Amino acid sequence: MDEEPAAAPEPAFKKSVAREYLESIVVAVILALFIRTFAVQAFKIPTGSMEQNLLIGDHLLVNKLVYSPSLAPWEDTLFGKKAIRRGDVVVFKYPEEPWRDFIKRVIGLPGETVEVRNRKVLVNGSPLDEDVQTCSVGPASRMSCEDADPSHGGAYKVYYIGATRGDDDSEPGSLHDGWGPQVVPAGHILVLGDNRDNSRDSRFWGFVPQDDLLGLGAVVYWSSDPEGGRIRWERIGRRLE
């Protein structure tokens, strides 16, 4: 009896080059969306409200995990999570137009009484440790600054235009305006720009709900001068203070 010949094996399925490229692109897009949504987001500095610490044309990476709620204790250690601290440079939803993102420095925490008088920020009646710089504005809006008090440093630098005025300067919105005292509500923070005379911040539109925080400014990954297009190599890799 003749044996039937063995059936030829079916050819192994082989993906086309185009399909492999397409799958790689889809995976990359999904990964990028995951990172942008949950971990890191890019942010470009559009205004001078944080000069000279952050310049127009700086591009930042924002840590979105640091303030996020934790489902397990190990998440805090793994992702470096922490509570909001005074001095943090944060990105948040602008209270008056929530579709816009703003960046400022945290100054007041929930329950604290904050007041601004004659270039001094008072928290619960005590002056905040800030390194005040006095600046003049030259051609092309370039700021030239020097220490207001060389004998005193501070946790971070803040910038004011022109000479100091008297202690009775309390006109809202004036050059060195007075503000407060006001108590920061529960679940909110008070934020100010480092360029104090050129910043619309909590003095003008109120407190920021903590739920509207998007993340902590981490590092400058790119910077270019918007006037001439020069790449500011010296700023790339700079960590925020």
Write the layout of secondary structure elements.
Layout: H1 17-39, E1 40-44, E2 58-63, H2 73-79, E3 89-93, E4 101-108, E5 113-117, E6 120-123, E7 126-127, E8 131-137, E9 143-147, E10 157-161, E11 179-183, E12 188-192, H3 202-205, E13 208-209, E14 213-223
Parallel strand pairs: 8-10
Antiparallel strand pairs: 1-2, 2-14, 3-4, 3-14, 4-12, 5-6, 5-11, 6-7, 8-9, 12-13
| Topology pattern, helix = H, strand = E | HEEHEEEEEEEEEEHEE
Class derived from helix and strand content:
alpha+beta
Spatial gap, N to C terminus: 89 Å
Percentage of residues assigned to helices: 10-25%
The helix tally amounts to 3
Tally of strands: 14
Shape: globular
Q: Hey, roughly how much beta strand do the residues contain?
A: 25-35%
Rg, please? 25 Å
On the 0-100 scale, what is the average pLDDT?
Answer: 81
Going across the biggest sheet, name each strand in turn: 1-2-14-3-4-12-13
Can you summarize the main beta sheet? 7 strands, antiparallel
Determine the oligomeric state from the structure. Answer: single chain
Poorly predicted sequence stretches spanning 5 or more consecutive residues: 33-37, 165-173
